[in-house]
Specification:
Elements (H helix, E strand, L loop, with lengths): L12 E7 L2 H11 L7 E7 L18 E7 L9 H17 L5 E3 L3 E4 L2 E13 L2 E11 L14 H5 L5 H20 L3 H10 L7 E6 L2 E10 L5 E5 L4 E4 L4 E3 L3
Parallel strand pairs: 1-2
Antiparallel strand pairs: 2-3, 3-7, 4-5, 5-6, 6-7, 8-9, 8-12, 9-10, 10-11
The chain binds biotin (BTN).
Length: 250
């Protein structure tokens, strides 16, 4: 297996043994050279993998996929959440391909039976009103086995078999490219529909934490700018930005 079966995503692949963070490496690369859109950076091990909200992303060396894809999408800043949607949807497709039913925990996590199987860290650079470069950083648990009490799972843990990391990666590139082209073709409605259809907790009453205050509400959807819309028990709808609330998973 030499190259992925894609037109551009992953056609340039930089495979590193050991690096601080593939997102940091990608950002440096973009600053120092002219990078082709679709270039991917894969690491067997990250020494300072980063997650959302300043958290670290720690995984067992050589067991999982930790990689970044550099894109130069022609989209306006107000549409940047589309990048998050297409990345989530590519992961949903990938997991379906391996017969796993996953859900998107807004904004950027993939869950299987309430356990996290993948996380996404997207970092954009902006020029006037447009996204100049987007770095999609993805951590997908593939062959690591987690203890039952831990809130994470992996492909191997679910399907009881070991996976070839590169084969999984190349399959992901195909799904990402499929959704990327839909985004380029302006098929926002289709992307939106698919994202909501796979959204964890849609139309269900769930418990959340806002700062340290617990409350109950029903998720009504995610709007164009990526805010989570929740109907509160008072009947009022409130919109939340990323990091303003946390889910209280059972
Ligand atoms: C999260 O769920 O908090 C997001 C996790 C993102 C982790 C990936 S691993 C590859 C890329 N490089 C990083 O440093 N982080 C992302």
């Amino acid at each position: 297996m030499k190259n992925p079966e894609t037109l551009f995503i992953g056609q340039h692949l930089i495979h590193l043994n050991n690096i601080h963070s593939t997102n940091n490496f990608a950002a440096k690369l973009v600053k120092q050279t002219k990078v082709v859109s679709g270039t991917a950076i894969l690491a067997d091990h990250q020494t300072a993998g980063r997650g959302q909200s300043g958290n670290s992303w720690l995984t067992e060396s050589g067991k999982n996929l930790t990689f970044s894809v550099i894109l130069q999408p022609k989209i306006e800043i107000e549409n940047q959440f589309l990048l998050s949607k297409i990345t989530c949807l590519a992961l949903i497709d990938l997991l379906h391909y391996f017969e796993i039913d996953a859900q998107i925990k807004w904004p950027n996590d993939l869950l299987v039976s309430q356990k996290k199987i993948a996380g996404i860290l997207i970092e954009n650079s902006i020029k006037s009103k447009y996204i100049e470069t987007s770095i999609l950083g993805i951590g997908l648990n593939v062959n690591q086995l987690f203890s039952a009490s831990f809130g994470a799972t992996s492909l191997q843990q679910i399907n009881n078999k070991e996976y070839d990391l590169k084969a999984v990666l190349f399959q992901f590139f195909q799904f990402l490219e499929k959704w990327y082209f839909k985004m380029e073709q302006g098929k926002e409605k289709e992307i939106d529909f698919a994202y909501q259809e796979n959204l964890y907790g849609l139309n269900r009453e769930l418990r959340f934490l806002e700062k340290d205050r617990p409350f109950k509400g029903t998720i009504e959807g995610v709007n164009k700018i990526g805010q989570l819309e929740i109907k509160l028990n008072s009947g009022k709808q409130k919109k939340y930005n990323n990091q303003e609330i946390r889910f209280m998973l059972d």
